[in-house]
Design a protein that fits this description.
Number of helices: 12
CATH architecture of the largest domain: 3-Layer(aba) Sandwich
Number of domains: 2
CATH superfamily of the largest domain: NAD(P)-binding Rossmann-like Domain
Number of strands: 15
CATH topology of the largest domain: Rossmann fold
């Protein structure tokens, strides 16, 4: 018997769900993870075809997945960055008993899901009175982070820094129409973090993008740009040492979070004991979040299954309700084997 599933294009899902809806869906996804639902860190397969013309390095497939039993869904999210274009993103959803539900173009809502999980991290770990955000990086991910954080904290001012002056000034001007807080472009990361209660790093940098010794007491850091390549680090060893370290998936941090590994290898932290908890464990009340006004907290998040599956399920349900998308038909393996045309061969 065939099974109908829904294909949702990037245009189909644009504007289909609000940021607030993404935040609540993803909060619940991580809560389920914290209560024991399965999730695996990303797996990377690199092409053997050599560097692409645009990026100068090989294309790759990055895949991560999760199960959400309370929501009767499981799924996977696949990215193909470093391609000849900006890359491709694909979200696949199945019911908990393995029935195909949806195939979703994952690119247009990627900054929304990443922003939403950043907001969940801020809500669990940042001080309640946090009002100033520093953004290191002026790309799409920083946009999603700022919009989402405004949903969980009363932000008054955001300071944005990236090495490209034109980019950061364009970010400040463009994003002012989408947020309530004032946005100022600044000339250094020091200036950005000087008064920050929340620091967001969303870059492709290989080396630390701010000086941890200059952070305010009681600051929270969302590190979302680099955490899947062990030879790259956005935050320095000072930040790592000071921070209560929370991440999306513990196995990913210990395997490929360059900043954490570097700090451990150079004696600033103990590799096995410095790690505090997964975000889901905090949301499931297995570990407390912030415990004082003065402690430094850090949420290490570079994309994982719970947010992709939770966000995808949200879009799927809203699309079904709105009658959006294109039905596609899948046949079970048992049926499909019957379609096989075995060509007679002389042995």
């Amino acid at each position: 018997m065939s099974q109908k599933a829904l294909f949702l294009s990037g245009k189909d899902v644009a504007g289909l769900a609000t940021m607030e809806e993404f935040i609540e869906a993803i909060r619940d996804g991580y809560r389920q993870r914290g209560e024991g639902a399965s999730a695996k860190p990303s797996q990377v397969i690199s092409s053997d075809a050599g560097p692409t013309p645009r990026y100068g390095k090989a294309a790759s497939l990055v895949t991560y997945g999760a199960s959400m039993p309370d929501s009767n869904v499981m799924g996977m999210y696949t990215m193909c960055p470093s391609s000849a274009t900006e890359g491709w993103y694909l979200n696949q959803l199945y019911s908990s008993i393995g029935e195909p539900l949806a195939v979703i173009d994952g690119a247009s809502w990627n900054p929304l899901k990443t922003g939403a999980v950043g907001a969940v991290g801020v809500d669990a770990l940042a001080r309640d009175d946090s009002s100033v955000v520093a953004l290191i990086g002026s790309g799409e991910q920083s946009k999603g982070q700022l919009v989402a954080i405004e949903h969980v904290r009363d932000i008054e001012h955001a300071y944005v820094y990236s090495p490209n002056k034109e980019h950061r000034e364009k970010f400040a001007k463009t994003m002012q129409d989408f947020v309530k807080c004032d946005i100022t472009s600044v000339d250094s990361s020091d200036a950005a973090i000087e008064n920050a209660d929340i620091i967001v790093t969303a870059t492709k940098a290989s080396n630390p993008v701010f000086d941890g010794s200059k952070m305010k007491e009681g600051v929270h850091v969302n590190a979302v740009g680099q955490g899947s390549e062990a030879d790259k680090r956005e935050v320095d060893e000072v930040t790592v040492k000071q921070a209560k370290w929370v991440s999306d998936i513990k196995a990913r941090t210990l395997r490929s979070q360059g900043a954490y590994i570097y700090a451990a290898d150079h004696g600033f932290i103990d590799f096995d004991t410095h790690y505090y908890a997964e975000l889901g464990e905090v949301l499931a009340n297995k570990y407390p979040g912030r415990e004082s006004e003065t402690e430094v907290t850090l949420f290490d998040s570079t994309g994982s299954g719970p947010e992709a599956v939770a966000g995808g399920k949200l879009l799927y349900e809203k699309a079904v309700k709105a009658g959006i998308g294109t039905e596609i038909e899948f046949y079970s393996a048992e049926e499909s084997f019957g379609f096989t045309d075995y060509i007679a061969t002389d042995w």
